[in-house]
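Q: Hi! New to this. If I give you a protein sequence and the SMILES for zinc ion, can you show me the bound structure?
A: Yes, paste them in.
Q: Okay, here:
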Amino acid sequence: MQYKFRNFYKCSKCGHEWSMEWHATCDDRCPKCNTSISPTRSEDIIPKIYPKWIVPTYCSDEYCDDYPPYALIEITPDLYRWIQRALKARKSLDAARIQRYDYTPDWKASEIDSPTEDELVETECRIDYNLISVSDDDIKWTAVIKHTSVEFSTERIPLKEVKEAFKVYKCSKKNLPLLINDLKYNVSKELLERRLHA
Ligand SMILES: [Zn+2]
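A: Thanks. Here is the predicted structure of the protein with zinc ion bound:
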């Protein structure tokens, strides 16, 4: 649960100052002397809304079925910057793909085909060695089930989708409606909706 406000307090009795995140701008008790104090000021906490993918996974060993079938992937601006640097490095090194350790994927299970985020459940699987791998066309993650040699990967996310999603991420809230008709990918459309209603 994300709180909506950061409230700042200064105790009128003992001078102690503190802040607290909460759903409302309300009084709090001084942690030093227990006096009830109203906030001196409150700041809105702007929720961080990043592009999000639910991606199926696959394993090259067709008899293996104990790996997590889905990855919930939220790409942060930091990771997006690294992806852009990896693309430049790939070009200058003439490499096929660039990899690094990256623990972004939230590995999930689900009873349902093509689940929504609410239909994803925790997996029992312990996962190790998460690698992100970037090519000119796509990104994907590969990982290993802990204490085994079972390696599995996410399906590829086309870079076109990632780029479009970050266009929505970077757009000012005021200009979001101007983007609606240009968007091709569901992740961007869904991100735009989430941002408009945040
Ligand atoms: Zn006090």
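A: The CA atoms of residues 8 and 41 lie 5 Å apart. Let me know if you'd like me to explain how to read the tokens.
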